[in-house]
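Tutorial handout. Part one gives the primary structure; part two gives the three-dimensional structure as tokens.
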Amino acid sequence: MKYYQPSNIAPSRGVAILAVSSLVSGVAIGSATAFISKFIYFIVLFPLGMGFGTGALLGFAVKKGKIRNPLIALGLGVLGGVVTYGSLMYGQYINFQQEAERIIQNEYSLTDKKQIADQVNAVIQQETGDSGFVGFLKFSAKQGTGISRGSSKLKLDETFTYLLWLIELGIVGFLAASIPFGAASEPFNEDGNDWYGEKQRIGSAKEESKDELIQLLNVDDIAGAAALLSSQAETLFEMPRIDVYVRTCASAVNSDSVITVNYVSLNDKKQEESKQLLEGLISESQRSQLVPQISSQDNESIDS
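Part two.
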């Protein structure tokens, strides 16, 4: 079994698609969240949603652009995360401007929008020494952040507000980058110029056969590995167990296949969990040697 390594190929068209997706999705998701934040905003929870949404879109762009370079996907994912959170903050700046203009209009009966904007900037500059977006950030941090917990409310000071923003930016950036990074690391068939298909279970082994199975696959003893596997349906109900999956590429059916070995068990809540133990490539001849042997062994056990 050969270990899979991404080829690090990144087609220029695919990189362009991913770069545009980073900017467009970041602005769209950040701006939409800023609009919602006028009515309600949950710290940490909203950044989780923003990061996952941005990452999912970028992961899709990685697949469409056939990017097999995880570092490029990671870098543009970080860019997408920064744009997303930056758009949220800038959207909140716009919200602040609109609310301040409404208050000034009502209080002082001013109608000249430029004069109103100048008044808002003058207040911000007086409080922070800066105007515009930077002044707004400093002003917002100075005002602090309120966190509600049931009937009580906690007020974060300026330092902790900056820390909260940094944590939220980290959450968004991590998810926005890790999802496309994982997508670019997925097995890609260079012969067929396409991603491998979905996993198909070809058999399972008993837990006590785990180490032996992995060793046999690592030394390319496919017949020995097949002897430990069964494809009968009842093995799906055994816990814990070792599941073996195969992935092929429809564009190059005679090329290498991806073999994945998972350890399947029940957690404390009696829910099924799966942990990957091994993943690698086997040749077409090895695959044909593995799968028919499993079927023939099951037929022999049924006949007996």
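Part three, for discussion. The longest helix spans residues 70-108. The CA atoms of residues 50 and 248 lie 33 Å apart.
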